[in-house]
Design brief:
Blueprint: E1 18-21, E2 26-27, H1 29-38, E3 51-54
């Protein structure tokens, strides 16, 4: 089950799946892909996004 912390903080519809460089903020790929069509800055801190990496939640031990 997906807990609320694992959901995208922008849409709350999808799990977090992308992490932004260099600031390490996170969202789902749908939100960041849509955002990057028109903007190059982070939703949260306004840093210029230089790349987006896949984010996978560390397995809980």
């Amino acid at each position: 089950p997906t807990s609320e912390e694992d959901l995208c903080p922008i849409c709350y519809a999808h799990p977090i799946s992308a992490i932004f460089r260099p600031c390490s903020h996170k969202s789902c790929k749908a939100c960041i892909n849509q955002h990057l069509m028109n903007n190059k800055d982070c939703f949260f801190c306004k840093a210029t996004i230089t790349g987006v990496d896949d984010f996978t939640k560390p397995a809980s031990s």
